Amino acid sequence: MRTIGKMLYAFGLLYGLIGLRVSAQVPQPITIDFEPSEGYVIGNLNGQLGWTVPHGNAQVTAETAYSGSQSVELSPGSSVAVAAQTFAQNLGETVVFFDIYARPAAEDSIDSSTIFTVEQARFGFQKSNGEGILQVFEGNGLGGGEWTATAF
């Protein structure tokens, strides 16, 4: 596996290419560092503490952790790597947020770059003149749309 490229290193509540589903109430905030003290072991993330990997490959690794000694790596491949976790919402709470630490890949084509999907929002980085330009997907409401560069 490449250590740089389309691999995603996650800290906190990982959500790069990750699904968020709401279920029963649990204490907040939830902090996930993928550490042994939390019950995570090096290897396949699928099946560990409620995580599923419906597409591609996601591994708990001891490489390039933002906090602690472990992280999650979504590996590049012929299919997009997706890791999903169900997070509960407290009753009466209307604001849900998360923080991640990621090392996305910017490529010449946005379709080859790391793309983040957060509920209905999609964004990624496209390489331009040696820099990664933040792109957002502007949907048309019919399942299509176009990628647009931001001023960031």
Write the layout of secondary structure elements.
Blueprint: E1 20-23, E2 43-44, E3 52-55, E4 58-61, E5 71-74, E6 82-88, E7 115-118, E8 121-128, E9 131-139, E10 145-149
Parallel strand pairs: 1-6
Antiparallel strand pairs: 2-4, 3-6, 4-5, 7-8, 8-9, 9-10
Describe the model.
The chain has 152 residues and is mainly beta. The protein folds into two domains: 1-103, no CATH class; 106-152, no CATH class. It is built from no helices and ten strands. It has strands at residues 20-23, 43-44, 52-55, 58-61, 71-74, 82-88, 115-118, 121-128, 131-139, 145-149. Strands 7-8-9-10 form a four-stranded antiparallel beta sheet, with no helix packed on it. The chain is globular, with a radius of gyration of 16 Å.
